[in-house]
Amino acid sequence: MEDRTIISQITALVAEEQRLQEQPEHSPARLHDVEVMLDQLWDLLRQRRGKREFGENPDDAAPRDAGTVEHYRQ
Predict the structure, then answer these.
(1) Predicted TM-score (pTM) above 0.85
(2) Rounded to whole angstroms, how far apart are CA atoms 12 and 19?
(3) Distance between CA atoms of residues 47 and 57, nearest Å
(4) What is the mean pLDDT of residues 7-33?
(5) Nearest 5°: CA angle at 11, between 51 and 56?
(6) 34-58 pLDDT per residue, tens
(7) How far apart are CA 17 and CA 30, in angstroms?
(8) Fewer CB within 10 Å, N side or C side of the chain?
(9) How many domains does the structure of the chain reveal?
(10) So what's the pLDDT on residue 52?
(11) How far is it, in rounded angstroms, from Cα 43 to Cα 39?
């Protein structure tokens, strides 16, 4: 997956997250799912950028599971 594809997905999910937060009847489960997907995409983008910065192949970056990226906050 290329950076621009990841960024496009992030942009779409941020818009969805904002819509959900503005709706008083929003689904908390869907909001949580969107937040997790955003964390995973941001993590993947950071991995790709880090690999590129250090002369490695950014295509070797792999999405991490939700449990891993969610624990970064704690």
Answers:
(1) yes
(2) 11
(3) 10
(4) 95
(5) 5
(6) 999 999 999 999 999 999 999 999 9
(7) 9
(8) C
(9) 1
(10) 97
(11) 6
Task: Calculate the average pLDDT of the chain.
Answer: 94
Amino acid making up residue 70: E
Of 73, 52, 47, 54, the closest CA to residue 64 belongs to 47
Whether 16 contacts 34, CB under 8 Å: yes
User: Torsion over CA of 28, 35, 30 and 15, rounded to 10 degrees?
Assistant: 110
* Residue 70 pLDDT: 83
Q: By residue range, what is the domain housing residue 56?
A: 3-73
Tell me how far apart the alpha carbons of residues 54 and 40 are, in angstroms, rounded to a whole number: 21
